[in-house]
Amino acid sequence: MSPVDVVFLIAAGFGAGLIGYITGLASVVSYPALLAVGLSPISANVTNTVSLVAVGIGSTAQSGRVLLDGDRRRLIGGAVASLVGGAIGAVTLLLTPADAFEAIVPFLVALAAVALLTQPMLRRWATRHQDRPGVWMFGLVVISVYGGYFGAGAGIMVLALMLVLTSEPLWRATLSKSLFLGIANTVAAVGFMLFGPVHWTAALAMAIGCLAGGWCGPPVVKRLPAEPLRIVVGLGGLGLAVWLALG
């Protein structure tokens, strides 16, 4: 891997960290960047998961103390659900043939992009907040399985789940989303480090950018025009899905 590739991945990681915090769609930036420097789809996916751990670390370190002032029981339950789901997703990926993964990736990316583009509708559903801890926990496990397996768009899914099934305000749901996905990514990353084809140079370069992007996410989100960014990234995700399907 050339120095130019390393710089490119650091920059892409920074963008992924910011976009991941704002929209929950970090993999739409980071995954194609890893493909662009020559990694195979399966190697790019496991390397991407390892790198994205840094996003959760950065964003939680920036403002995670606020979470401790909320419902700690929900926080602990969500952490356990994320850990279990992330582990199941990682095992599923490691046991799935590479050809099968390459076939399903375009559909996963498309699902993530559609989730992002329909985010306003999901938020409107949140006008009727009802605390349903059992349903919320089960939903978080399912999304964390997807997060451990691939993960693009999982942030939007967690955010929507929290807004619909809990009474958390948007700002706290955004913080919780970063923490829970960080846990799912971390447990999956451990499995990939031990048994997966992680490209360590690419993972380190991407993680440096992701850490910086995740750290800058909370303050920057207050200043960026999130609505245009959401639409651009969503449309870009659909374009990526088409490109992957045709490729």
UniProtKB/TrEMBL annotation:
Q: What is this protein called?
A: Probable membrane transporter protein
Q: Which organism is it from?
A: Gordonia aquimaris
Q: Where is the signal peptide?
A: none
Q: Where are the transmembrane segments?
A: 6-26, 33-55, 75-96, 103-122, 134-166, 178-196, 228-246
> Where in the cell does this protein reside?
Cell membrane
Listed GO CC annotations: plasma membrane
InterPro entries xrefs: TM_pro_TauE-like, TSUP
> Is Cytoplasm among the key words of this record?
no
What does UniProt list as this organism's lineage? Bacteria, Bacillati, Actinomycetota, Actinomycetes, Mycobacteriales
| Family the UniProt entry places it in | Belongs to the 4-toluene sulfonate uptake permease (TSUP) (TC 2.A.102) family.
Assigned keywords, A-Z? Cell membrane, Membrane, Transmembrane, Transmembrane helix, Transport
Kindly give the membrane topology term recorded for this protein. Multi-pass membrane protein
